[in-house]
Amino acid sequence: EKNGYEHFMLKEIFEQTQSIKDTFRGRVVPASKELFLGGINEVIPKLVEARRILIIGCGTSWHAGMVGEYLFEEFARVPVEVEYASEFRYRNPVIYNDDIVLAISQSGETADTLAAINLAKEAGATVLGICNVVGSSIPRNTDAGVYTHAGPEIGVASTKAFTAQVTVLTMMAMLVGYRKGTLSKEEYEKHIDELACLPEKIKSILDKSEAIKELSAKYVDSTNALYLGRGYLFPVALEGALKLKEISYIHAEGYPAAEMKHGPIALIDEQMPVFVAATKDKSYEKIVSNIQEVKARKGHVIAIVTEGDTVIKGMADHVIEIPETLEALAPLLTVIPFQLISYYIAVLRGCNVDQPRNLAKSVTVE
Ligand code: F6R
């Protein structure tokens, strides 16, 4: 069932051209420039009126939630808190009965996430889910929700579920923003058109997998790695680091690029690969200076850049060019090279990528 791929993880990375289409199906309609999310249609008015949204998840799903925070705050101008389910549930959180609590989970069975939504329900909040496994416990315990429809994810490291979660969050934030009037018709339609272009763009990144494999080989013996990004790409840096550590056992940390000088910069030397998500957006100039700071300390910079970028190409040790997209959609493209890099490094290290040590696909105990 691996369809000729060596591992489920690789198969699932490559499936993202299709899984994202499955997430769109019947929901993104470029011809009429419309979006539909049947599962939450009835609660859209509540989302429009919401004073705040609490997003809850663990691991990769929490990273998707972080992207969701940027999306909802930008498009729908509503304050968002992103919470680790385990911390949220045990710290006597303040939950208002007009809060919207949005739980994100691939498996729909994560014990902490389930417990957190039960707490939110007791407090009278409206609880929504974004889950992949149909009929799992979380969707059964929420008021409404949206399935990601990414298809079964077998590899323990989450890949296509993440892009599907981010896609759903993007659609939700766009819908709420548009209904609310905080996202203009023009911007709304522009994002619908661009969403429809993503599968092709993902394909063009996957077409570079041989080159990505080659550069990954250079970092097989690293003992540490740093991942940097700003804005929408900060959560992608966190996700890149998590992917590398969980399957290759290389210690990796993700940071917002500007935080580097508040500590992690002390770690940089000629042994340290620094993976930077540095596509063209409003913080481009800033990330260019962060790259210079890394190079000044002899770190190795591997940068994901927008096609045609020459500035970073002149500074970085390696660049991976990806197609241009809208800033808010960039996580869906920039994460792909990070997934591939972790995969290739782990395989070259001889690791069991589909079943990394100590990890389970579904964490049903706390
Ligand atoms: C990372 C990974 C885990 C899960 C986390 C949440 O690749 O697989 O960090 O993301 O255990 O799982 P779900 O989304 O099933 O709640």
Based on helices, strands and strand pairing, what is the structural class? alpha/beta
Ends distance: 31 Å
| Percent of sequence in beta strands | 15-25%
Average pLDDT level: 97
Rg on CA atoms, Å: 20 Å
Q: What string, H for helix and E for strand, traces the elements in order?
A: HHEEHEHEHEHEHEHHHEHEEHEEH
Shape: globular
Portion in helices: 40-55%
Strand arrangement, largest sheet?
4-3-5-6-7
* Helix segment tally: 13
DSSP strand tally: 12
Q: What small molecules accompany the polymer chains?
A: fructose -6-phosphate
Segments where pLDDT lies below 50 for 5+ residues?
A: none
> How does the major sheet shape up?
5 strands, parallel
Domain SIS: 43-183, 215-356
Catalytic activity: D-fructose 6-phosphate + L-glutamine = D-glucosamine 6-phosphate + L-glutamate
Keywords: Aminotransferase, Cytoplasm, Glutamine amidotransferase, Repeat, Transferase
Subcellular location: Cytoplasm
Question: Would you kindly provide a written description of the structure presented here, covering whatever features stand out?
Answer:
The structure is a single chain. The chain is α/β, with parallel strands linked by helices and 366 residues long. 44% of the residues lie in helices and 16% in strands. It contains 13 helices and twelve strands. The strands form three sheets. A five-stranded parallel beta sheet has the order 4-3-5-6-7, sandwiched between helices. Strands 9-8-10-11-12 form a five-stranded parallel beta sheet, sandwiched between helices. The protein has a two-stranded antiparallel sheet with strand order 1-2. Helix 2 runs antiparallel to helix 9 (185-206), helix 4 (59-76) packs parallel to helix 8 and helix 11 packs parallel to helix 13. It is globular, with a radius of gyration of 20 Å. The protein starts with 7 loop residues before the first helix and ends in an 18-residue tail after the last helix. Fructose -6-phosphate (F6R) binds at residues 58-61, 105-107, 110, 113, 156-158, 242, 246, 362-363.
